[in-house]
Amino acid sequence: MTVPLPNKLLLTRGDLPRLGIHISPSTLLRLEAAGKFPKRVRLGEHSVAWVASEIHAYIEALAAAREAGR
């Protein structure tokens, strides 16, 4: 698996399942609002995206929490 460049944006929710993140849209919005998932970046009036490096850091944090819970 290749790691995207730090400034690459994930443009759709369709990118998340390919990274192993299977979260419903409503849960995703709730997690973002609670600060438990990276917030989207507004690209335009009707366009948002996630910064890939923030999504990868989120996944790494989940793995680290799993390891700490042993």
* Helix-strand makeup class: alpha+beta
Strand order of the largest sheet: 1-3-2
Helix content: 40-55%
Helix-strand string:
EHHEEH
Indicate the low-confidence ranges by residue numbers: none
Mind sketching the topology for me?
Blueprint (H helix, E strand, L loop, with lengths): L8 E2 L4 H4 L6 H9 L7 E4 L2 E5 H17 L2
Antiparallel strand pairs: 1-3, 2-3
Description:
The protein is of the alpha+beta class. The protein has one domain. It has helices at residues 15-18, 25-33, 52-68, and strands at residues 9-10, 41-44, 47-51. The radius of gyration is 13 Å and the shape is globular.
In short:
The protein has three helices and three strands; from the N terminus they run βααββα.
Keywords:
alpha+beta; 3-stranded antiparallel sheet; 43% helix; 3 helices; 70 residues
